[in-house]
Amino acid sequence: MPVDLVLFDCDGVLVDSEVLSARVLADEATALGYSLSPEDCLDRFTGISMAAVRTMIEADLGQPLPPDFEARIRAADQRAFACQLRPIEGVEAAIRALDCRRCVASSGSPEKMRFTLGLTGLLPLFEPHLFSASMVARGKPAPDLFAYAARQMRVPPAACLVVEDSVAGVTAAVAAGMDVLGFAGGAHCRDGYASMLRRAGARMTFERMALLPALVAQGR
Question: Which InterPro entries match (predicted)?
Answer without folding.
Answer: Beta-PGM-like, HAD-like_sf, HAD-SF_hydro_IA, HAD_sf, PGP-like_dom2
